[in-house]
Amino acid sequence: MAAAPVTDPPARTGRGGRPRDPSRDDVIRAAILRLLGEVGYGALTMDAVAAEAGVGKATIYRRWRTKQDLVIDTVSELNRAWTLDADTGSLEGDLRQLVHRMVEMMASPVGAATRSLLAAMQHEPALIDAFREGPMAIWRRAFAEMWARAQARGEVGPGMTQSIPAEAATALFVQRWLVTREPVDAAYADAVLERVVLPLVRQETAGSRAG
Amino acid sequence: MAAAPVTDPPARTGRGGRPRDPSRDDVIRAAILRLLGEVGYGALTMDAVAAEAGVGKATIYRRWRTKQDLVIDTVSELNRAWTLDADTGSLEGDLRQLVHRMVEMMASPVGAATRSLLAAMQHEPALIDAFREGPMAIWRRAFAEMWARAQARGEVGPGMTQSIPAEAATALFVQRWLVTREPVDAAYADAVLERVVLPLVRQETAGSRAG
């Protein structure tokens, strides 16, 4: 992991429901990112976030009701930045870009914070649904939209997005990131694409054309 | 995960270095299994293990120097039971059996304890190496021996065991088990074998024969 360059995520675009003071939001998000990496979700408190961000606790509570809301929203928003503008015009281009972005995210402080949340899920069942509807949904949607674009271009059949082979597009990275801790870098991303993901896509496409 | 039947692991065989009182060892292991599932690695103490197992702390310290030794040894030994006698006579038979055993382990209390250790790794770097040399090495060795047998039978080329496609034999299960929490059961195991693992093995074999 040390070998992977930590690149800046692409600039975030605006969206509805954006708070009035985005710069203060960014300061709070940066504080959470540091605290999750350092102490983890369990030991993170609203007091520590307020102190680390240099804002009053009332400022935080005005926008987020609970620690879980605050952390899930922050980690989701930070992950979202890596998934924007993913349309390159071809499935192979889209896959390559999304997988490289995911690998960069994993090696970044956002990856450490996301992994910290995944660890906390083990003993806080309420986090499982929150993670699924937050950070995980961000990546699911990015991949689902990629498969939908590929289907519209005639590159894959309609069953790809929910298919088991589609799970392979992320699974090998997740396994190294969470279990084996072997390098997850750009070279590994390319190797997984060439030897696992693209062959499985070709096989599924051939199968759906033959069927 | 609830749908997966929790079957008993195969009986353990003896090995060198076995303690004099294996039944007491088993009681201590069962206590750790319960505590890891309930409170997690961080909150587990030698006192709690001794109380839960109904043995004196001296008994535990005679055999294990530290909490880390005790927990890693226990989780390794419990995982080992699922990997024994894996030779079925063919690669497809071996793969099917190992993958089904892994899926049963994930749905069992041993799986919950293993996942608890993986979560603890996030904030205890010393656990990363211990996990790699303990529970992870058990499964790595079982899969490596499976690829070696397949190579000896002429079913795959020599490069399979360390290959990236070989990582797919476990990665999809790990992703559901640790991240998406979608069902990991026997039907899923068969589907992953048919649509991901066996096609990749055939592709690698064809490639190594052509090359």
UniProtKB/TrEMBL annotation, chains A, B:
Residues 45-64 bind DNA. Keywords: DNA-binding, Transcription, Transcription regulation. Residues 1-24 are annotated as: Disordered. The keyword Cell membrane does not apply. GO terms for molecular function: DNA-binding transcription factor activity; transcription cis-regulatory region binding. Residues 22-82 form the HTH tetR-type domain. PROSITE patterns: HTH_TETR_1, HTH_TETR_2. PANTHER family: HTH-TYPE TRANSCRIPTIONAL REGULATOR RUTR, TETR-FAMILY TRANSCRIPTIONAL REGULATOR. This is Transcriptional regulator, TetR family. It comes from Geodermatophilus saharensis.
